[in-house]
From TrEMBL:
This is Sugar phosphate isomerases/epimerases. One of its GO terms (molecular function) is isomerase activity. Residues 62-276 form the Xylose isomerase-like TIM barrel domain. Transmembrane segments: none annotated. Residues 1-26 form the signal peptide.
Length: 299
């Protein structure tokens, strides 16, 4: 009888531990590193863009069930494209915040500025990011995009928003003795957000921690994406490594520590653009979320 009780207790402990590992509780504010809160975890909805088209509400419900604190929009608002308050109510019901949104310059031109500002204010998000502009790695056009970024920064800052830019690999090409990313950083205000995509900077064979430390307080949100460096990704055999957080080559603990102590990071935004081993996008996102949870629990 005693043996049976001990076995039952052991099983219950094991199940409890598995649950803790698979889903870090939604409010990470109680977890700290060096007396600073560990940022909340969001997901960039581009990761599941096809799923959103098929079942917007069902997909968001599944993401909420994975334990995400928030979502980062990328232009798809499903049935709520003209109903920000309705979308906010739906997200509230799932326990999801809007960590941030990827936006276009066109959405904030003179004709659409007030409407777009009202929409994102209704969603209660305070961070808007330009995700891509091919002028950013063109030596003859980079100053043009910087001028546009600075102009929109001033307007959105006056409305209470944080505003910034998101990198891909090309921003880390050499330019003026540094990189295009450095040029953008040095040519924008110190509270202009540099949303570092760890996957793309890793693919570009640069050190993400170095860039977080180089621009203190400017990594307000970080894209937590697993990508293999070019040299590794080009090889057929990758020694079991794959683009899933925790199964890749990035020192995520070092990235998170830099985010927390130097970057001023409020949100860790998981983005999944590769789905290895036949995984569906939702399956890959869930595995990366579990991988990130595990890393956080060891800090």
């Amino acid at each position: 009888m005693k043996l049976l009780k001990l076995m039952t207790f052991a099983i219950m402990v094991c199940i409890s531990c598995m649950s803790c590992t698979s889903q870090v509780h939604k409010d990470n504010s109680t977890q700290q590193y060096k007396n600073k809160p560990i940022p909340k975890i969001s997901v960039q909805l581009w990761s599941v863009k096809e799923e959103l088209k098929k079942d917007f509400k069902g997909t968001l419900t599944q993401l909420a069930d994975m334990g995400f604190d928030g979502v980062e929009f990328a232009g798809d608002f499903g049935p709520y494209k003209d109903d920000a308050k309705g979308l906010k109510g739906f997200l509230d019901g799932l326990g999801l915040q809007v960590s941030s949104a990827h936006v276009t310059f066109a959405a904030f031109d003179a004709e659409h500025f007030e409407q777009s500002v009202a929409f994102y204010k209704a969603l209660k998000t305070d961070t808007l990011i330009i995700p891509w502009d091919d002028r950013a790695w063109d030596s003859s056009k980079v100053d043009s995009v910087i001028a546009d970024l600075n102009r929109l920064f001033t307007k959105l800052n006056a409305e209470g928003f944080y505003f910034g830019y998101h990198n891909h690999e090309q921003e880390f090409d050499a330019y003026n003795g540094a990189t295009f990313w450095d040029h953008i950083a040095k040519s924008t205000p110190k509270d202009f957000v540099l949303q570092l995509d760890v996957g793309w900077i890793t693919f570009a064979e640069k050190n993400p921690v170095e860039y977080i430390n180089r621009y203190p307080g400017r990594t307000l949100t970080t894209h937590i994406k697993a990508k293999l460096p070019k040299a590794v990704a080009a090889k057929i055999a990758t020694n079991g490594k794959r683009p899933i957080i925790g199964d890749d080559v990035t020192d995520w603990s070092a990235v998170l520590k830099a985010d927390i102590t130097v970057g001023g990071t409020k949100w860790l935004v998981i983005e999944q653009e590769e789905y290895p081993n036949g995984l569906t996008p939702l399956q890959a996102v869930e595995l990366s979320k579990k991988g990130l949870n595990k890393i956080i629990t060891t800090m």
